[in-house]
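Researcher: Re-running this chain for the archive, since the previous output was lost when a drive failed. Same request as before.
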Amino acid sequence: MVNVSRTFSVLASQDVAVDYLADFGNAEEWDPGTVSCTRVDSGPVAPGARWHNVSKILGRETELSYMLVAKRPDGVVFKGSNRTATSVDDIRVMPMPGGSRIVYHATIQFRGPTKLVDPVMRLVFELLAAKTANQMTQALNRHVQQVSR
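Model: Regenerated structure tokens:
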């Protein structure tokens, strides 16, 4: 199992950040591994909403089905899965003066023979988490500027 976590600050208020992050389609902007992320159902972005995600890691594309498991005033939780892995993204958003503090935690559990790559993938996801924190910061800071116009 791979666990990665990053903590960083953004200019977006808690409610603006949570609303933006709850729409997993926005992962195209904040997740450096995401190639595309398309909503596969309709209605409000609420627990149970689903997306089809295509990610590229180590030059290989993989597809996962993601669901918004929880949307709370202090964050969101997504669960993605395919036949070889399950990923849980738990993103906490805490208010602070001038914006919010984000705590991004991802857990990836590999199944079957894919478990053998766990040690290598731990390193890959540690590097990816650093890029994710940077890209999410930029995306949320851009988003808050667009919302305030």
